[in-house]
Amino acid sequence: MTAPGPLTPMSPPGSSAPVGPDASRSVAGRMLAVLDAFDASHRSLSLTALARRAGLPLATAHRLVASLTRWGALERDATGAYHIGLRLWEVATLSPRGVGVREAALPFMEDLYEATHENVQLAVRDGLEVVYVELISGHSAVQVRTRVGSRWPLHATGVGLVLLAYGPPRLYERVCARPLRRYTDLTIQDPHRLRATLAEVRRTGIAVSDRQITMDGLSIAAPVRGPRGEVVASLSVVVPAAEGRAPGLVPAVRVAAHGISRTLAAALGQEPVAEASGR
């Protein structure tokens, strides 16, 4: 199984922008289509493949790719193929929702890894998906399908269930407005079951995603809160589902998430708001 790709052939999630050679698209929109042509399965693309995946005429793609390459958003290798450039990564590191939380979280993630020697993950919500902003993997830990920068749906992941449970009131309706994607026989696909699961997450402050993405992995996740008590991220540890370790790891995940929350509050000179079971 591979990570889910773009929802449309190069339209961002939730976008209604047309796909294909459409002269009505702005220059900025066409440039974004070029960048959106890359994903986990397409890290290196020829100019022809870029044009096709971006839905652009070859001449237009050539002009835009040249501009993006001069700026550093794209780089061209010795074979003539293009890939994402370091300049774009440099700009991305300025995002406070990703990098700021990541910097606060890393010491606690490292402690959690040392205590478990399992995969430790940090994610934030972007629309109807989670984006993983940091991952510490163990050599002998269960294999995970996530990577830094990858996107997964809210309903099927431990971190996603946390972010969905503490998200805006209408987020649940938006998620359930379309079919819930199935990855295994245990993936939540029933909106009523999802609603009950989210209520339990809010009651306990912990989400458990049991074999919903792969049949060998179980995720335990907890919320990371900002200074005002809002949930800004989610921390999880992924363990082999067959080992039955989830109950024993809940306190460690909870303590690590609370430590990150305190660090985020201290960075602004504030005391963290006490956790509550509701929104």
Automatic annotation (TrEMBL):
Residues 1-12 have a biased composition (Pro residues). Residues 1-23 are annotated as: Disordered. Keywords: DNA-binding, Transcription, Transcription regulation. It comes from the Bacteria. Residues 87-266 form the IclR-ED domain. Residues 25-86 form the HTH iclR-type domain. It holds the Pfam family IclR_C. This is IclR family transcriptional regulator.
